[in-house]
């Protein structure tokens, strides 16, 4: 066994044997404990009466909408929107690799990549999340057909399956594929909400919480508008896309008129500001670690075959925000290809974080607890215990 493999295996074993309080001593940055993240039933916009809340305990109590940096969440697992190399990249992938530290790269290196629509699990290392589930979303570049829709759904399903297989009880998802991969935000949110809804319905006892962790105001507004269609306090049956106000092949919401247009423009402006701030402050995410010994990978995935794509389905026109992101990305890729002749997919493993928060933390910072409203409190004020079934069978990690 190589020195590097020994290193990540030993650290993974050590971290997974620790209790919550000891693990907290190892976090590199701020963290948000699960009990500080409101469930949808208690979300500030939710107008459910007490009686309605009683009825909805099974669904609205099991999901949350959280806007912020996924790398700060103290949950059993966070999901990474990775590429098929699993060796890091930009966006949320870059943020997660930076915050988790180099051992995440070393373990990912041993996984031998991952196919689109599937998922693989690693330790979270320096993250407050115990595990990272890496999934590879479809590349949509603004237009989506049925195969991209199926692949995106499959990302959520595989990630949830991995969570269940490893006895994990809380997970946070970013908006997979909606950044660099250009899947339009609105249909992506529909797929995320419907897939998670259906999965929770048939796995209610297996899960404590699924958090939809959005980063951009645009996504926050979309999810806020749609959450109750799927996790309604008084209705456990999901609505169809039509009922939820979105016609297939149309990314624009059906409801609302001028007010929505004004709100959309405001969101886009806020997002543009956020993205440009990030671009200014983001450093390159060059994964420098290499395995000089080139040893054979020990992929640990228990993947099943993904559904074959269906052809000839209608496509969805990208929203203006998605188009802009795609244009920016295409521009970057053209420049890169012209300059270096690289394969864009492979090149992504060494490029800067385009849409992600800059969570690079090279130096030790004092541990602080972030309240879900982003206000900082001291670590002592938090007495949450992890919802993970500690010590229980961890199929993918007991090696
Ligand atoms: N926390 C939560 N969400 C975030 C964060 C963060 N720190 N940073 C960004 N997002 P993207 P993709 C949101 O581009 O479209 C990488 O290079 C972001 O606003 O990260 O699946 C990979 O290596 C967006 O809503 O992932 C792949 O090559 C969402 O995360 C490729 O990008 C996903 O955007 C994957 O592209």
Bound molecules: ligand AR6
So what's the CATH class of the largest domain?
Alpha Beta
Give unreliable regions as ranges. Answer: 237-260, 276-323, 332-355, 358-367, 374-399
Number of strands: 10
Distance between the termini: 13 Å
In terms of structural class, how would the helical and strand content be classed? alpha/beta
Q: How does CATH name the architecture of the largest domain?
A: 3-Layer(aba) Sandwich
| CATH T-level fold name of the largest domain | Leucine Aminopeptidase, subunit E, domain 1
Number of domains: 2
**Shape from CA axes?**
globular
Strand order of the largest sheet: 2-8-7-4-6-5
Mean pLDDT: 71
Q: Mind telling me the CATH superfamily name of the largest domain?
A: Leucine Aminopeptidase, subunit E, domain 1
Number of helices: 11
Rg from C-alpha positions?
Answer: 20 Å
Order of helices and strands: HHEHEEEHHEEHEHEHHHHEE
What kind of sheet is the major sheet?
A: 6 strands, mixed
Roughly what fraction of the amino acids lie in strands? 5-15%
**Helical residues, percent:** 25-40%
GO biological process, one term: purine nucleoside metabolic process
Biased composition (Acidic residues): 292-303
Region (Disordered): 229-399
Biased composition (Polar residues): 275-291, 347-363, 374-390
């Amino acid at each position: 066994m190589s020195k590097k493999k020994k290193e990540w295996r030993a650290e993974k074993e050590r971290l997974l044997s620790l209790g919550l309080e000891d693990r907290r001593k190892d976090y590199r940055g701020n963290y948000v404990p699960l009990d500080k993240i409101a469930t949808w039933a208690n979300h500030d916009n939710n107008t459910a009466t007490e009686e309605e809340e009683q009825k909805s305990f099974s669904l609205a109590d099991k999901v949350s909408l959280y806007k912020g940096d996924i790398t700060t969440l103290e949950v059993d697992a966070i999901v990474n929107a990775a590429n098929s190399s699993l060796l890091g990249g930009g966006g949320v992938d870059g943020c997660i690799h930076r915050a988790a530290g180099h051992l995440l790269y070393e373990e990912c290196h041993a996984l031998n990549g991952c196919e689109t629509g599937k998922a693989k699990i690693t330790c979270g290392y320096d993250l407050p999340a115990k595990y990272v589930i890496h999934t590879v979303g479809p590349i949509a570049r603004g237009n989506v057909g049925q195969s991209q829709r199926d692949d995106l759904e499959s990302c959520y399903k595989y990630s949830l399956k991995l969570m269940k297989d490893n006895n994990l009880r809380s997970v946070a998802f970013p908006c997979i594929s909606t950044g660099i991969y250009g899947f339009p935000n609105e249909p992506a949110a529909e797929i995320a909400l419907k897939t998670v809804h259906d999965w929770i319905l048939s796995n209610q006892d297996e899960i404590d919480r699924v958090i939809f962790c959005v980063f951009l105001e645009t996504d926050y507004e979309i999810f806020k508008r749609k959450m109750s269609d799927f996790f309604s306090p008084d209705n456990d049956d999901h609505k169809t896309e039509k009922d939820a106000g979105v016609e297939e092949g149309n990314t624009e919401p059906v409801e609302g008129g001028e007010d929505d247009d004004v709100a959309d423009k405001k969101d886009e402006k806020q997002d543009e500001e956020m993205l440009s701030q990030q671009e200014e402050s983001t450093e390159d995410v060059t994964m420098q670690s290499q395995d000089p010994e080139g040893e054979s990978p020990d992929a640990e995935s228990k993947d099943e075959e993904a559904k074959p794509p269906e052809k000839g389905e209608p496509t969805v026109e990208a929203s203006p925000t998605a188009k802009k992101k795609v244009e920016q990305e295409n521009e970057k890729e053209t420049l890169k290809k012209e300059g270096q002749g690289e394969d864009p997919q492979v090149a992504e493993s060494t490029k800067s974080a385009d849409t992600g928060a800059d969570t690079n933390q090279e130096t030790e910072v004092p541990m602080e607890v972030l309240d879900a409203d982003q206000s900082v409190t001291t670590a002592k004020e938090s007495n949450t215990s992890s919802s993970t079934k500690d010590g229980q069978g961890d199929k993918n990690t007991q090696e």
